[in-house]
């Protein structure tokens, strides 16, 4: 696992946006040949990244023409037009500003009549796209990745999940009241994320410090589902200084040393 520590959340955004741009540009995706397949999260953590990706696109430095995206999750019961749905979030913060083809955007439907069939079709669509090249993710304060709440199987696939009370309360900041937050979501599984060729996790802010500590320094546990990344062959966590508050000084020094020797 690579751990990159940046001073601020803005710098984390800059680092990851540059990283993604480089990946897409070097891949040279073409319509005939192959698309670059990105997994994407919602939440406040990816916002600085999306802002920069949009800016790069506006400056003509990045095209999404041959990029396919799969979002991590969606609330059950919210239609794509609902202002608190993840469909709406993605459209408002990224998709409406870039040149991605409508048919290349994939987001689970929170209003599917048959949730199980919706999840199975999502897994099949990922397979058809050739798998995910880079899955970008955020993390919950309880260490969840996508909506894989504590206790989720680390081998899980896309499915319906009941949200914990903690997640409902934390996510209520995007709604008008706690009672408006849906209690269920459709989410890719930990196994779905682990199948990606590469996983990049954004961890910013002091409120994520315990989750980062559990993910990096403690053992793999279904109670902190992001810790499964310890078993991934190509995972990178990019965090800010605030998020390192619970890490050992020795751990922080080590990963900083590794990064500075990488730059030599
Ligand atoms: N399902 C999402 C996760 O994918 C996200 O990582 C997490 C953290 O969100 P934020 O970045 O706003 O802290 O929130 C939600 O629960």
TrEMBL record:
E.C. numbers: 3.5.99.6
PROSITE patterns assigned: GLC_GALNAC_ISOMERASE
Residue intervals of the Glucosamine/galactosamine-6-phosphate isomerase domain: 9-231
Keyword Isomerase: yes
Domain of life of the native organism: Eukaryota
A biological process term (GO) from this entry: carbohydrate metabolic process
Function of the molecule: Catalyzes the reversible conversion of alpha-D-glucosamine 6-phosphate (GlcN-6P) into beta-D-fructose 6-phosphate (Fru-6P) and ammonium ion, a regulatory reaction step in de novo uridine diphosphate-N-acetyl-alpha-D-glucosamine (UDP-GlcNAc) biosynthesis via hexosamine pathway.
Protein name: Glucosamine-6-phosphate isomerase
